[in-house]
């Protein structure tokens, strides 16, 4: 392995801290949604320690909100588990895309990093990796930033959540979508990439309209990923 390749997989305090600082701006918006979650969780009757523990150990915003919708005196465990799995299944694909870089880490570090992977730090890290730039610190440090701000937001929501009861009305639900769109537009641009994104978008929309809730996330990712892999394979053979 060359020195430049080794740098891509390097994980130390310096690049972790740099990654942490780089993701702080987007983490501020994550905290707002954490606030909304904390408020919503108190309204369905969860006690404060359980709410904080859910944000700390589950760390999956959309899944946590979905769990609240199914919460009640009698919790349907199987539908709850299936819903959470469907929403988070995209992490299987995200992990697969990161494997070429994570595989050089010891298993403990590898899975430790994956615990903090979110849409935001995954997108930024993949963009950096594709530019042949070190991004392991961004992946891990940025994930820690998002995790801490998510917990902080949850805590604020428990005690001060009434200040922002409906973040959607403020347009805050669009922040992450706009951020990820910016990552896409800032990446490589060619006909192959455009077609792959169009196929993924169409597949996701069709799944959103005709398949069970939340399946569009996985369907869109699979459609784009499979087409990209097949197309890249044919290009390599040629």
UniProtKB/TrEMBL annotation:
This is Branched-chain amino acid transporter subunit. PANTHER family: INNER MEMBRANE PROTEIN YGAZ. It is found in: Cell membrane. One of its GO terms (cellular component) is plasma membrane. It comes from the Bacteria. The chain crosses the membrane at residues 23-44, 75-99, 136-161, 167-186, 193-211, 217-233. It comes from Amphritea japonica ATCC BAA-1530. Keywords: Cell membrane, Membrane, Transmembrane, Transmembrane helix, Transport. It is a multi-pass membrane protein. Belongs to the AzlC family. One of its GO terms (biological process) is L-valine transmembrane transport.
